[in-house]
Design brief:
Layout: H1 2-6, H2 8-13, H3 26-37, E1 42-50, H4 60-75, H5 78-89, E2 93-100, H6 103-107, H7 115-129, E3 133-140, H8 147-161, E4 166-174, E5 178-180, H9 181-196, H10 204-207, E6 209-213, E7 234-241, H11 243-251, H12 259-288, E8 292-296, H13 309-316, H14 326-342, H15 362-369, H16 375-381, E9 389-395, H17 400-417, E10 421-428, E11 436-440, E12 444-447, H18 457-460, E13 465-466
Parallel strand pairs: 1-2, 2-3, 3-4, 4-6, 7-8, 9-10
Antiparallel strand pairs: 1-7, 4-5, 5-13, 6-10, 11-12
Helix pairs in contact: 4-7, 5-12, 7-8, 8-9, 9-17, 11-12, 11-13, 12-14
Amino acid sequence: MTIVSKNFDVLLKYGIIEDDMTIFDEDLILETINMIKLHNFDIRTVTLAISLRDCMSEDVNVVCDKIKFKLDKYACNLVKYAEEIENDYSIPIVNKRISVTPISIVGESCSNKDYLKIAKTLDESAKNLGIDFIGGFSALVEKGFTNGDKALIESIPEALASTDRLCSSVNVATSKAGINMDAVLKMASTIKKSADITKEKDGIGAAKLVVFCNSVSDNPFMAGAYCGVGEPECALNIGVSGPGVVRAAILDIDKNANLGVLSNKIKQTSYKITGTGELIGRRMAAKLGVPFGVIDLSLAPTPAVGDSVAQIFQAMGLEHAGAHGTTAALAMLNDAVKKGGIMASSYVGGLSGAFIPVSEDAGMIEAASFGHLSFDKLEAMTCVCSVGLDMIAIPGDTPETTIAGMIADEMAIGMINKKTTAARIIPAPNKKAGDKVVFGGLLGEAPVMNVNKLSSADFVARGGRIPAPIHSLNN
């Protein structure tokens, strides 16, 4: 009864038990407990979004002092309260994170735009607070660069190399503005430099850097989290994760069940996952004394066995991720997760879908190692999922112009389909196709994948902006 009592509110929320504890459904109680104990269900992240708009000053030292004060003011109890809630509900909260206003905006007020100093201040504050990652070393440049944007992007490689917890993102395209190809080419160079300057760690700098189309301002997941200018002073955003739970649910039904039945089972499971996540999020926000923001429904995998999106495809009936039919399976999974989750919460946001990061998913690592997944197949899959080309290691000698072409392709998918897409690509220094990069922890490991050797140089060198599609004129 100890575990059940700790999970009382969760069980009560779903009607599994009655208020007076007189009616029990043992199967449903065990199902809820097994989600946590056997199938790797967890709250992947509680991310405190903090606005730094009032930290601006001409003096970079003043900016840094204001940032330290504000992060400490709002996040001093984040880790402590998360651990208390973990204990109360017996539900793991894996990561405690902070996202802040895009730092290109905050630092632009300084007469001396020392973004590296601000980066180290953010990292130091995160370390002192016990935070796993801090996101928001970011810029929004879909229509062009300000002086602050340029200075921040130039500082990214060194900033990521000289910090441990800092994450960076740059939005280079939207469905309304089109694709800033000058920014795409600049980010390809920045990715290469970020990898090269951290070559002793297999290019981990590039693993903490993501390029976006249609980035969202309430995303709790790294490396792309930041606190958008339309967000409140402070809010708590939650990212739930349950690939193992979904896989187990699919394996629990008749293997010959049709796809409609399969979809309904995923929806029902997503409802349970989302409801649990929102309960934890609201309790956490109340303890912190800040508004509850959104719950992100994304199925975020880990390198742990049984916590894989790729293994869901196998449970569905595919021999392995990468088989013909994988894109269709992913589309159905993504849609069912959203349909189920949206019924459990009125405040769904962030990215909300299924992630397919190669290095962070045990099944994807295996599929890529066996050659079942190609770069081109991964790109096709990004048309129907969240978020994009994620944690893909490529040969270190891949030209910047080829990387720019990869980014441009992914941005085009997002722009045309009015969805968020991203590219987190690691050109592994001194590595060739077939080698392996190892980052450890949540970032995992990945085989270095072969890439198309045809040149994109003349195309990406044209620069300018790829115009927004005709459906952007929808007012």
